[in-house]
């Protein structure tokens, strides 16, 4: 059983108390005792306090007259307790407003009055300071541009500035965020990889980096620090952030441009190879043409020797004519390749987009025929005048159509159809190629340029380069009825321009 507290124990507790205590004799109202807190506030020692009367240690104002003070103490004697707002005066003359309670107590020597009081002026000052601090915090939260969150150990938001709420799509009057985990509104990142709150909090020792991605129509990226604040064995975290969306988007653009340049470098390498092939093939093709011409001359001489020779010569002639046509065709292909690969400089021409499609149509249909793919053409009834490089723009049309044919060749027979369209729309000439294939799963112009197994992506990379270099735009999208639509737009030429 625990021992009972003795008189010395109670005296020790009273001396340690921060509440001011005076003990008066119930009959004479003389001061019998004061605790250290009262002596400190009144600036008198206990021996100095004992002979003092109310007028010696109270305000000189009429409402604090000695008669009133004695009546207050007597009310406690008569009724057990009494309360009053009293102004004490310290030894140095400082007036101390207090909230004082007088209580009758029975001591071994007889009844006494114990007065407990506190400095309400100091309490009011503390309250004013607290209100002022609260006003400052409120002003900071509502008017600063700083993005700041105060979070608890679990990552739930306990405080946020208005600018922080704005980034999350909330307002200062919206209390949905209070107590909610920050990860319910945004994703946490470290070194560019998504992480959980526990990992970010563990890195705050006491300060660590943090990134925040806020989803939306256009993702917002915030970056800054997370600082651990330990107060009274309670962990809290202060997150200070700033908007780095433009930097992140700029890095993404530079990465895309780098990929474009890489593809273009591959294209240039292929162009050099094509030029070498064209150069090496040109001479043997010319020699082959000369040999065929010689054989034709011999065959004409042999044809005069009789009917059999006439028959042989006729068959040779037919065969050689066919070979000559194929060689001429090969020469045309090599010439076209040389023209295309060598034509790297920007040469603007005033061209009807419809005419470019017509020029490419023969080659498009030639590629479509082996796969039984129908090519439907829907050209704008009026000319679609654009200023561009004719040969390179034609190559873009070919690339988009051949990709559509490859995709459509895998479809059921009834769906093997591509549609090539042109139109004038909002100051640009537009060409689109629709197919009934699987549909694009992502934007090929923003990522790898190809979705084909084993595809190099050079065709689309080159198309992107050609169109954007001519101040146009190129895109890919899903069609509501299934399949994909690839297209590009070039600025219309001014009327009357040459």
From TrEMBL:
Q: What is its EC number?
A: 2.7.13.3
The record's PROSITE patterns line, in alphabetical order, gives: HIS_KIN (PS50109)
GO molecular function, one example? ATP binding
Q: What class of enzyme is it?
A: transferase
CDD domains documented for this protein = HisKA, PAS
**Catalytically driven reaction(s):** ATP + protein L-histidine = ADP + protein N-phospho-L-histidine
- For whether the record's keyword set contains ATP-binding, the answer is yes
Which of UniProt's keywords are assigned here? ATP-binding, Kinase, Nucleotide-binding, Phosphoprotein, Transferase, Two-component regulatory system
Q: Where is the Histidine kinase domain?
A: 276-494
Q: Which Pfam families match?
A: HATPase_c, PAS_8
What protein am I looking at? histidine kinase
């Amino acid at each position: 059983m625990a021992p009972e507290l003795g008189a010395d124990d109670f005296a020790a507790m009273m001396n340690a108390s921060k509440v001011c205590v005076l003990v008066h004799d119930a009959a004479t109202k003389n001061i019998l005792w004061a605790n250290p807190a009262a002596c400190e506030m009144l600036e008198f020692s206990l021996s100095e306090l004992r002979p003092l009367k109310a007028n010696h240690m109270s305000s000189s104002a009429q409402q604090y007259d000695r008669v009133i003070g004695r009546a207050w103490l007597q009310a406690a004697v008569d009724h057990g307790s009494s309360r009053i707002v009293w102004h004490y005066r310290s030894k140095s003359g400082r007036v101390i407003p207090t909230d004082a309670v007088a209580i009758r107590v029975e001591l071994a020597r007889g009844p006494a009055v114990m007065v407990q009081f506190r400095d309400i002026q100091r309490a009011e000052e503390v309250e004013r300071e607290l209100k002022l601090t609260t006003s400052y915090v409120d002003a900071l939260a509502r008017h600063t541009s700083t993005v700041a969150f105060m979070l608890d150990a679990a990552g739930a938001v306990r405080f946020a500035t208005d600018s922080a709420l704005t980034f999350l799509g909330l307002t200062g009057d919206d209390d949905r965020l209070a107590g909610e985990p920050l990860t319910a509104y945004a994703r946490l990142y470290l070194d560019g990889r998504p992480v959980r709150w526990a990992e970010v909090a563990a890195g705050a020792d006491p300060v660590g980096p943090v990134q925040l991605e806020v989803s939306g129509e256009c993702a917002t990226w915030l970056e800054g620090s997370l600082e651990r604040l330990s107060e009274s064995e309670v962990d809290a975290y202060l997150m200070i952030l700033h908007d780095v969306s433009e930097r992140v988007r700029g890095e993404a653009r530079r990465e895309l441009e780098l990929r474009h340049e890489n593809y273009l470098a591959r294209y240039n390498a292929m162009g050099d190879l094509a030029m070498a092939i064209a150069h090496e093939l040109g001479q043997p093709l010319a020699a082959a043409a000369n040999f065929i011409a010689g054989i034709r001359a011999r065959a004409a001489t042999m044809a005069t020797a009789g009917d059999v020779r006439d028959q042989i010569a006729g068959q040779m002639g037919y065969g050689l004519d066919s070979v000559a046509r194929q060689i001429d065709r090969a020469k045309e292909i090599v010439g076209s390749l040389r023209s295309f690969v060598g034509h790297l400089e920007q040469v603007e021409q005033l061209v009807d987009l419809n005419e470019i499609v017509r020029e490419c149509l023969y080659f498009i249909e030639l590629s479509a025929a082996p796969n039984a793919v129908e090519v439907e053409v829907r050209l704008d009834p009026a000319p679609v005048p654009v200023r561009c490089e004719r040969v390179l723009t034609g190559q873009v049309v070919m690339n988009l159509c051949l990709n559509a044919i490859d995709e459509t060749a895998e479809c059921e027979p009834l769906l093997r159809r591509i549609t090539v369209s042109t139109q004038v729309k909002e100051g640009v000439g537009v060409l689109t190629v629709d197919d009934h294939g699987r549909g694009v799963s992502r934007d090929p112009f923003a990522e790898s340029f190809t979705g084909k197994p084993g595809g190099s992506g050079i065709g689309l990379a080159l198309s992107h380069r050609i169109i954007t270099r001519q101040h146009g735009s190129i895109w890919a999208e899903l069609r509501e009825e299934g399949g994909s639509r690839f297209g590009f737009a070039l600025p219309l030429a001014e009327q009357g321009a040459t």
